[in-house]
Amino acid sequence: MSVRITPRRVVVTALALMAAGIAIAWSGIINIGASTGHWAITDWFLHWSMRNTVRTYAYLTVDAPAIDDDGLVAAAGHFAATCAACHGAPGERASPVMQASTPNAPDLALTADTWKDRELFWIIKHGIKFTPMPAWPALDRDDEVRRMAAFVRRLPTMTPERYRALAYGPGRIAGGEPQRLDDALPDCERCHADDGRGQADIPVLAGQKPAYLFAALVAFASRERSSGVMNAAAARMDPAAMRALADHYAGLPGLTESTMPASDVETTGSSSSAERIMAKGLPAIDLPACSKCHATGKRPDYPRLSGQKPEYLAARLRRWHGDPGVVDARKDPDTMPMIARRIPEHMIEPLARRLAQR
Ligand code: HEC
Ligand code: HEC
Ligand code: HEC
Question: Percentage of residues in the chain with pLDDT exceeding 90?
Fold first, then answer.
């Protein structure tokens, strides 16, 4: 069978396709969430057309020279303050928050060599629509853009030391990551308060064991322990500052060694079975006694719980808890998550309240 193409049929088909497009957009099924990323083919297509646009516009609109090597200090300082959060920099991680965008910002040390000078200039001046990449806020300052393009051009061979010297000069905050306690502390105190006792929805750090605090910061920075808020705060810290912060908070009065019930408790009812779980666990479901690790004098990386906010303890147990019937291979096999998944749901609140008691 052959179909004859008439002007009327062309118009009807075009209208039908438009109506179908509008219907799909109206239905809302196209997922615009940044969390899902792009399909590989969409990603390829968008970048292919982006590169073509940059090539054409850079060729038509950018005059040589497109880079200027004489302003590296200003460019590096500005890069550290505004670009590095998204792109990272030599010796510095990008912020985990910024890396969660779609598309996310590439490491320019790896991609700068794929662009010509005038293309870098065009991108830095005009930004990229529908992505987080901003335009230069002063469009009449091509001189600034040329200096920034020259700086980006050098990123592939720039050492962290050279970057630090350019971007931070002789200042106290080396590498953008505070190394000294005095420089690091104000950021933490916004949330954890100057006495380290937290606020309504913020846990107590004061009096916690230093090894546990340090391990928690390292785990937040590497995102092994997940928290959008603390991943970002810890990623800003140098390891020396983490160590100093852990010692500082450990030295303030706050949390204390737990007083655990004696192992011969024999009681019933829900708060008293919290006592029993702490002292003896529930052998029938392989739940170990909490006192095995959380009583006085145990390993330095087992946290103190006495004096902590009960809501925070319960929330941590809940997040580890999940559905006890499901063995989730994606969850890490650490001890505490495995233990938490065995705690009966109705025991979480009473246990958290009892553990937090002094
Ligand atoms: C809010 C986050 C954000 C900030 C701030 C930001 N960028 Fe970007 N940038 C991006 C993203 C995302 C892309 C990738 C866009 C894409 O994939 O099409 C990008 C792309 C680029 C590219 C092209 C690289 C490539 O290979 O695709 C250059 C060059 C660049 N940015 C330079 C800079 C400079 C210089 C600054 C500071 C003046 C800066 N960016 C600030 C998010 C950011
Ligand atoms: C914007 C608020 C905010 C800032 C800034 C912040 N924190 Fe936190 N911090 C939190 C919250 C909320 C939690 C609880 C995280 C969770 O739910 O896992 C937390 C948890 C922690 C923990 C784990 C406590 C435990 O008992 O496991 C440590 C350690 C910590 N923060 C240290 C710091 C340090 C050091 C700084 C400064 C570099 C800092 N925080 C900055 C909000 C903040
Ligand atoms: C084998 C040792 C061990 C046993 C037994 C144990 N814990 Fe833990 N617990 C840990 C470790 C290690 C951590 C730190 C985990 C982390 O932060 O990733 C922890 C952390 C916690 C926390 C979070 C503390 C904070 O500040 O964020 C709570 C709440 C907790 N345990 C409750 C319990 C309860 C309830 C029991 C008894 C049912 C128990 N634990 C038994 C080792 C143990």
Answer: 61
State which ligand 2 atom lies nearest to the alpha carbon of 315: 17
Q: Is 335 in the pocket of ligand 3 (CB under 6 A)?
A: yes
pLDDT digits (tens, 9 = 90+) for 181-234: 988 898 899 889 999 999 888 999 999 999 999 999 999 998 888 888 888 889
For residue 295, report the phi and psi dihedrals to the nearest 5 degrees. Answer: -80, 175
User: What is this structure's pTM?
Assistant: 0.82
Are 161 and 90 spatial neighbours (Cβ–Cβ below 8 Å)? no
